[in-house]
Amino acid sequence: MRVTHLYRYPVKSMAGEALESTKVEYGGLAFDRLYAFIDHTPHRDGKKLTARQVPRMLGLRASTRDGEVSVIRADGAAFRVGHDLTEFVAATLGRPVSMVTRRDGESLHDAHDVLVLNAASLRALQEEWGKPLDVVRFRPNIVLDGPEVTAYEEEGWIGRSFGVGGACLTVVEANVRCGIPTLDPQTLQPDPSLLTLLVERHRQCFGVYCRVTQSGAVACGDEWVPLP
User: Fold this and answer.
1) Is 116 found in the same domain as 186?
2) Residue 4 CB: number of other CB atoms within 10 A?
């Protein structure tokens, strides 16, 4: 079983970027969920803004280059982190926002450091649902696959530790899914039947959350190795 895809999402609830390699740090992949936006509409003032409230956030793509994060809109225009980005996001989403960073010590993940997804489980779920499933619907960090991989075997990994590249991860819990995977990543149109399927057949869970217990570099092709 090996890493086939790596993803990070420099701005929470925006589309992210595929990687060939990355540093896995204590707290998550380098630059993953480094920034988030805070909603300042009267009924949500001070709460994090996500695609659950504003699905079109997923239509903005966050990218990292030379240590700087930019947000790219559909026409290719890029806005770097800073005053112009905050103004752009506020105008695009039609609501007042401010930006926070996990460099201030606050975790911006929904739960734990790293989300791992088993590609065999994705194929099985696609067959159950009867429609194509793009892996990015589920916003994983690490995708695993291999000829020996069986669907949903990750459900038995809770509490176990694994080495991957130079890092070590401990599987903490299954990921209880919200409504974001119901949004088509290309059209942003929702299909609630996917969440209904997860609720009825999979306890609303898909993928597993991990805690980083040793930092290190990870690359596509690295083996996922059970630790004693």
Assistant:
1) yes
2) 15
Ranges of beta strands (E only) in 119-204 are 142-145, 161-164, 167-176
Quote the CA–CA distance of 21 and 197 in Å, as a whole number: 33
- Tens-digit pLDDT profile for residues 1-47: 999 999 999 999 999 999 999 999 999 999 999 999 999 999 899 89
Q: Which pTM value belongs to this model? A: 0.94
Are residues 184 and 159 part of one domain?
yes
Q: In this structure, are 91 and 196 located in the same domain?
A: no
Kindly report, residue by residue over 202-224, the tens digit of the pLDDT.
Answer: 999 999 999 999 999 999 999 99
What number of H helices and E strands is found in the chain?
3, 17
* Cα gap 181→3, rounded to integer Å: 22
Q: Are residues 191 and 115 in the same domain?
A: yes
Asked if residue 192 and residue 213 are part of one domain, the reply reads: yes
CA 171 to chain centre: 16
